[in-house]
Amino acid sequence: MQLPAVSLLLLAAALSASARAPETQKCEGNFNIKNDDDFAKIIPCSEIKGKVFIDHTKLTEADLPNLQTLDGCIKVISNAELETLALPRITTITGVVEISNNPQLSTIDFNGLQVLGKSLTLTANPSVSSPNFPELSSVGENVLVAGETKATNFNYLPALQWVGKTMDIRGPFDTISLNSTLKAKNMVLVSSSKLGCVEITKNWTPMVEDKLKCFEKADKAHLAAGSKLPNGAITFQASPGVIAASVMLVAYLAL
Ligand SMILES: *[C@@H]1O[C@H](CO)[C@@H](O)[C@H](O)[C@H]1NC(C)=O
Predict the structure, then answer these.
(1) CA–CA separation, 11 vs 9, rounded Å?
(2) What does the pLDDT read at residue 177?
(3) Interval between CA 158 and ligand 1 midpoint (Å)
(4) CA gap 75, 70 in Å, rounded
(5) Which residues cross the membrane (predicted)?
(6) Residue 194, number of CB atoms within 10 A of its CB
(7) DSSP string of 30-89?
(8) 9 CA distance to ligand 1 centroid (A)?
(9) What does the alpha-carbon distance between residue 135 and residue 129 come to, in Å, rounded to a whole number?
(10) pTM value?
(11) What per-residue confidence (pLDDT) applies to 251?
(12) For a pocket test of ligand 1, which of 91, 175, 181, 182 has the largest count of ligand atoms closer than 8 A to its C-beta?
């Protein structure tokens, strides 16, 4: 009874394996993508050494299904019609990832990315509700998030364990969930939701080496990427128990 089903599965597996692109194709250079033809040139690459810029294009979809390593950076900026950015097999990027100012972008898929050498910047992509970075465990420099106005739950970096510099996340967050083993040098949390710092960080106990600042019920000006926080922001030397205690103390003093 089981045999036909098993052999069908095997056949399906064999067919999909033979349909796959060649396992490795190394590409080198800086790729300044302006249109579909430029983009088509990098689709076969399994490795890229260089920079990828997708900048002010009219692309609606940027899908790199073969790319596994990028020794360089990728910047996807100001693409008015871009809806999908997918690098589902990428595991390592040595440089920066910047995805900014793409008003229609609703799918950001870096499903296999584990290590990012420099910074991750996600700013002003108002149509994405849940960027996909399920495996990302290490970011060498900064994590900067702002202007993802649809992403009300910050739960899309669940495996993150190390941020070498500052993690600065700003948005309409009702909850912020981070890996309990996360270590970051500095952390800034700014939320415009009506909830306060204590509530939005309820599921959260990361370690911050230097300073953690949290600013609740923030207005537009303070939600802008990297803008200065007012004196009212709560600053504390972080250790999980102390965080909850100091937030409550400041909230009490503010009454
Ligand atoms: C925390 O991160 C580790 C490694 O990156 C991962 O294996 C684990 O599942 C994460 N925990 C949660 C609750 O996601």
Answers:
(1) 5
(2) 85
(3) 6
(4) 12
(5) none
(6) 10
(7) -EEE-SHHHHHHHTT-SEEEEEEEEES---SEEE-TT--EEEEEEEEE--TT--EEE-TT
(8) 31
(9) 18
(10) 0.82
(11) 40
(12) 181
